[in-house]
């Protein structure tokens, strides 16, 4: 059983952004009985790992997090969330598993798991294997800093261990074993229309669009009824310089229909 613990990493001394605080509020809203554990500077001092210590010394916080998230899951169990993950639904239905995550789909670039949302029992063998990549690794190498994203290591592991090969199908559910599952990308990464979603990876809320848009109906050569799905907290609805929003019709937490007029 995966315990009701949410782990996140916040090292360094920078203040949390409004986006991050809103994400954490979404955890509290949908997971009110979960313990939220911050792996901060004080906790990090008790972890002995050369790779993460070197990353910390170089102020590469994301690479510190790559190791600490695995350390937290292996030793305590629970669910790890990046600080730019918005929870949209309760996660209790996944707690009976030994391991779960979902495919990551960033603008069509699909990866075998989203490292932004990972759940595991303490001592899980998949987490142990991923941890082992870092045991004798150096962040500071003879060629400079090792800035290889954790998704490369993760992809290599799932290829060697489970035979997962690109191109990945982000809409499928992959059973690694009886109680270890990689879910479709719309579960924990980017929501899709009328499909169940549990968390949204906002990708730091900066370089991905704030909404997806699909024009559903055009009439009189000047009016457009468009469907917008929110992908992150910040950002306005995308309309062109020749378009003006007349009416917004929210239909869910993330979806709304918008009546637009095209100006000459």
Automatic annotation (TrEMBL):
Matches recorded under SUPFAM superfamilies: Nucleotide-diphospho-sugar transferases (SSF53448)
Domain of life of the native organism = Bacteria
Does Transferase show up as a keyword for this record? yes
For this UniProt record, the keywords arranged alphabetically read as follows: Transferase
Cellular component per GO? membrane
State a single Pfam family of this protein: Gly_transf_sug
For molecular function, the Gene Ontology terms on record are: mannosyltransferase activity
Under InterPro entries, the record lists: Glycosyltransferase_domain (IPR051706), GlycoTrfase_DXD_sugar-bd_CS (IPR007577), Nucleotide-diphossugar_trans (IPR029044)
Is Transferase given among the entry's keywords? Answer: yes
Q: List GO BP terms, alphabetically.
A: mannosyl-inositol phosphorylceramide biosynthetic process
Q: Any idea what this protein is called? A: Glycosyltransferase sugar-binding region containing DXD motif protein
Organism this protein belongs to: Photorhabdus namnaonensis
């Amino acid at each position: 059983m995966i315990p009701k613990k949410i782990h996140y990493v916040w090292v360094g001394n920078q203040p949390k952004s409004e986006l991050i605080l809103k994400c954490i509020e979404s955890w509290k809203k949908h997971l009110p009985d979960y313990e939220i554990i911050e792996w901060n500077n004080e906790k990090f001092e008790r972890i002995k790992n050369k790779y993460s210590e070197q990353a910390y010394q170089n102020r590469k916080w994301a690479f510190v997090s790559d190791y600490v998230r695995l350390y937290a899951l292996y030793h305590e169990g629970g669910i790890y969330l990046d600080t730019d993950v918005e929870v949209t639904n309760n996660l209790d239905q996944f707690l009976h598993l030994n391991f779960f995550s979902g495919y990551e789909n960033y603008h069509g670039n699909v990866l075998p798991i989203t490292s932004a949302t990972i759940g595991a029992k303490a001592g899980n063998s998949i987490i142990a294997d991923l941890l082992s990549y870092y045991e004798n690794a150096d962040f500071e190498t003879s060629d400079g800093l090792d800035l290889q994203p954790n998704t490369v290591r993760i992809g290599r592991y799932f290829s060697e261990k489970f035979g997962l090969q690109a191109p990945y199908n982000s809409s499928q559910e992959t059973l690694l074993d009886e109680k270890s599952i990689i879910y479709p990308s719309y579960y924990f990464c980017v929501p899709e229309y009328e499909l169940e979603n549990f968390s949204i990876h906002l990708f730091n809320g900066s370089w991905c669009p704030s909404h997806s848009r699909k024009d559903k109906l055009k009439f009189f050569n000047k009016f457009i009824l468009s469907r917008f799905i929110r992908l992150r907290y910040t950002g306005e609805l995308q309309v062109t310089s020749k378009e003006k929003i007349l009416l917004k019709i929210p239909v869910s937490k993330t979806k709304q229909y918008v009546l637009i007029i095209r100006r000459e």
